[in-house]
Amino acid sequence: MKNVNIKAEPTAVKVDLEKTALIVIDMQKDFLLHGGYGESLGNNVDNLASAIGSTKKVLEVARKIGLFIIQTREGHLPDLSDCPSTKLLRWPEGKRIGDQGPMGRILIRGEKGHSIVDEVAPLEGEMVIDKPGKNAFYKTDLEKVLKEKGIVNLLVVGVTTDVCCSTTVSGANDIGFNAIVLADCMASYDPARHRAALDIIKAQGGIFGWVTSSREVLDAIKEANFPL
Ligand code: TIU
Description:
- By secondary structure, the protein is α/β, with parallel strands linked by helices.
- It has seven helices and ten strands.
- It has helices at 29-32, 37-40, 50-65, 142-148, 161-174, 191-206, 214-223; strands at residues 3-6, 13-16, 20-25, 68-74, 100-101, 104-105, 127-131, 153-159, 178-187, 209-212.
- The chain has a six-stranded parallel β-sheet with strand order 7-4-3-8-9-10. The protein has a two-stranded antiparallel sheet with strand order 1-2.
- It is globular and about 50 Å long.
- The chain binds tricarbonodiimidic diamide (TIU).
- Tricarbonodiimidic diamide is lined by residues 26, 31, 38, 41, 74, 134, 159-160, 163-164, 189.
- Residues 26, 31, 38, 41, 74, 134, 159-160, 163-164, 189 line the site of tricarbonodiimidic diamide.
């Protein structure tokens, strides 16, 4: 047992770090950098930049204390056989998933844009789960992997707050995981949607989970005297 007590909203939350994973959602070039999928949808990617440094800090501590770490990547097979029409047809040709962009074909597995930004790139041996949907549990082994490891708590970081993070948090809650979101390690293309998505997660007594910050998580780890 490695219990820590994290200050959060709507309440503080006690977690056993041995039953906790850090899940890093879709910190991919296609979302964070110019010329990728996020920008092709008409978004300002600069609004995501703040999440990179905070996530890097948390990732480094998680590695030091041996927390189970999983990164996810949203993306599709080159023939788009795993991409439903709902993810394609609402956007103009030339700016769709699978179209050519400056970082390769947009949101296609194996292309440069699909990879994770250098600052938080997974180390050799760290788990990366490729997902065709927004919710990281949809058509992936994520639930199985976490349950086999005895994980019950998820520290959730990544992008974007209102799309892949919030759908993954609500998916996690439905299948029995406590989702604890680190607000400053997340971002949305629109700061108002970032705040709204966080409000929804913690509303009604924590209907989907908890909202905290990297500072609160790192302080809780320090207070529990983990050698950092
Ligand atoms: N559009 C948007 O905000 N996000 C996505 O399409 N995917 C993720 O959030 N990863």
